[in-house]
Amino acid sequence: MTPRRLLAALAVPLLAGTLSAPPAMARRAPPRIYPQGMVSAADPRAAEAGAQILRAGGSATDAAIATMLALTVVEPQSSGIGGGGFYVRTGPGGRVETIDGRETAPAAATESWFVKYGKVMGFADAVPGGISVGVPGNVALAAKAHARGGRLSWAQLFGPAVKLARQGFTITPRLYAMLKGNAATGAFTAEGRTLFYRADGEPLPVGTRVTNPALAATLTTLARHGAKAFYTGANRRAIAAAVSSAPRGAAPMTEADVGGYVAKNREPVCGNYRQYRICGMGPPSSGATTVFATLKQLERFDLTALGKDSPTAWHLIAESMRLAYADRARYAGDADFVTVPVVGMTDPDYLDRRSALIDPARTMPQVGAGVPRGAEALALADPAPAEEHGTSHFVAIDRRGGAVSYTSTIESSFGSGLMAGGYYLNNELTDFDMNPVLNGRPVNNRVQGGKRPRSSMSPTLVFGPDGRLRLAVGAAGGATIPAQVVRAVIGVVDWKLTAQDALALPVLFAPGTDAVFVEKGSSLESMIPALQTLGHASVTPRALPLKANAIEVVGGRLAGAADPRSEGKAVSE
Asked: Is 391 a catalytic residue?
C-alpha cells in the first residue's frame, strides 16, 4: 500500500454536469495527427467496413456508424439497428461528448409491466416476444453523431453493410454456436427460421453463405431517405406491428412510440485515476460511474508493485468492485425519471471514504450501498444485478485524431426474437428491474413509460498524463462489462501491458454481494484458495460472457486490440 499519488488540490474536479475539458497542459498540446486510422470490432467484416470508410476519408464517427451497420448484418445475435447504444467521442483537443441512443419503453408501460397475476415474470419468460421490446435508438444516435462529426455523406456509410446483406456473408463458428444455443429466440419467427435454420430446426452449418434481402432493402431505404425513414412510414409500422401482434407477449407499442424516439446529448462523466483522465457514459448507463468508482477506490494501493499475478491485487479489485456495484444497484437508472446522484457517486472524497473500507488482508463481511451527496433523502431498494449477452463494442480512431468508443446492443442473444425489415428487435426492457418495489421501497430502475432502462455498457476513453488520448476501450457481456473495462484500464495503466495483453487478462466479477466469480479456465482459478484465505467465502469459476475491443495510442501510433476469446479484429486504414 502506498500514499495517494495525486494530491487532491492538483486533481481536476469530476463534474457530470459539464462537458469535460482536458487539463490546461493538454489544451496547450498541439493536435496529434495519426499516419493511419484504425477500427477494432467483434467481427472482422464489420471492422473492415469501418476501415473502408476511413480509407475514403471518413471520420472516426463515419467509421463507427458503418461498423454498427455492418454488425447488424454479420452479428445479428448481438447488436444492430433493432437495438440501441452509447457513443463517446473525442477530437484532437481532448473535448469529450456523448450521445444516448438507449431504447425507450412504450408510453403505455407501467411499473407492473412484468407483473402477471400478482407475480413478477421470470427473465426467460419475459424475453421472447413483444413485452421485452423497447423503441430502437441506434439509427437516431447515428444520425445525431453524423450531423456533428461526419465527413462523408450519410449514404456512403451504408455501402459496406448493404453489400454484405445483398451479396451474402458466411456463418462463423461463433454465430453458429449462438444459433444452436439460442434457437428459442433466433428461430422465434418464420423470418429468423428462414434466414438461419434448416427445415429440421438445426442452424445452417458454419461456412454457409447467407443473404438478407429484406435487411438490404431496409438499409438502402435508410441510406436514401435518412434516419427519418426508420421512425416513419413502413418501418415504423413494421416495428409497432411486430410488437403489438407478437405471437407471445404482445405489448401495446404504437407507431407514435416509434415516431417519437429522440437520441439525447448527455454530459460525459470524467475523473482522474492516478495521472490519467477516464471518461465515459453517464445515466442511463451505469458504466462510467461503476468503472470510475472501482478504479478510484483502488488508487491508494500500489497495484503496479503487486502485479497481475498477485492474489492480493485481485482481492483488492474484488473488494472495490463490490462497493461500486452496490452503489450501481441502488442508484443507477434513467436520470430523466429518477434521481441519480452521479456527482456524489463519483466525488473523490466520497470514494476515499468507500476505499477506507477495503483491507488488503481481509474481506469485508458485508457490503452495502453508501450514501453519496445527493442521495441523503433517497429511500431506495437494492435489486440484484441482471444479465444480458447480446452486445457488441467497437472503437474507431481516424488520421486526424478523432476517436469514438461505441457500444451497441439488442440485449440478449437475438434480442426478443422478433424481426422487422430483416433485423432483430431488442429485448432491452428486461434490463429494467422487473419488480418495481422491494421491501416496501421503490427501485430506481423500475419500468415507466418512455423511460430508458439502466445499462452496463461502458464505452470509455482514457487520456494520458499529457492530456492526449491513450486508450479507447469497451466491452460486451452484460453486468460484467464494467469489470472488463476496469481490468483493461488497470492492465494498461498499472501493469504496463499492451492493450492486446490487457484484454487477454482474466476477468474477476464481484457484483456487489459476497459472491465472487472468476473466469473459468484462467489463471484466476488457481488463486481461489488464496482468495478464500483472504475471506472470500464464495469464489466460483464461471464461463463469463466476455468480448472486448480497444485501440491504444503509443508514441503517436495506433495499436489495435481484440479480445482473444472472440472473433474480433482490429483493421488499419
From this structure: yes
